[in-house]
Prior knowledge:
The chain is mostly helical.
Amino acid sequence: MASHRPGQEVRRADSFGGSERLARDWAARLERKIKTDGVQARKTSKVTFGDLVSQYRTAREEVKAFGRSMHGDLDMLEAAFGTRSLDSLTAEAWVGFARKRRLDGAGPATVMHNMAVARTVLNAAKAMFGIDTTGEAIAEAISALRLTGHVADSKERSRRPTPAELARLNAEFRRVAAHPSTQIRMYEVMAIAVSLPRRLGELCAMRWEDYGSGIVKLVDTKHPREPRTETIPVPPAARAVIESLPRLDERILPYNKESVSASWDRACTRLGIDDLHFHDLRHEGICRLFESGLQIQDVAMVSGHLSWTTLKRYTHL
Length: 317
């Protein structure tokens, strides 16, 4: 029999309320909890990233449908990790994903965006679906990937097209428009994008029924927290172009924004114009509004910016 000091059992029992039976009950409960948690952990390990993405899509679309861009991001992530169990998505796995994306040609800001979307989904798992996982592994991976340059925050562009570039593009778009197979009158789209400096998706969504008396209503415009509806003034130059357009559709510009962007890129390639994005026309248009003498609040009413902090870079002061 093992030796012990007198009163040892008493003190041990006293620590559990003075009853050996209570102590044994406590030990039994602890054992059952460990067994239960272990089983639960094994169940969670069988949940795949694809399962989680599917649940996340369903929950989000109960409130509002995703845009095409978000669906594309989730599709790409599912293709990479859809069959992987959540507990296999270590920091090393996300580093491997980022390195492959860069080798495939994605820029550091794009890869950062991809990983941010994945982290959002993972961080929603526990609260929304009772799945015990987080995006901590992605955060750890991002910390390392910043040091190697595989990921980076997006940079603000300040590229403005020169008058010569705009003249060349206008001439090229008019030349192409004369061809019977041309469906997008890009010289008109470009003119509106400069004189009414909004995002391409917003311009392509404008409807005739929402336009009139020098104003237009824009539905579901970009916002840091949730889409909003804006009624904005239409500058005279934009009104002149809009009112010259034929009414071919319920939309003022009845084109797909991806098709417009592709037409722009092809024209720039043909003309040898480097590093000029369609979105740079928005920058050009906002700068022109300031140069015309408008005040900050007047420009913001047209451009849709919510703060001076995000708008001031367009002034080049």
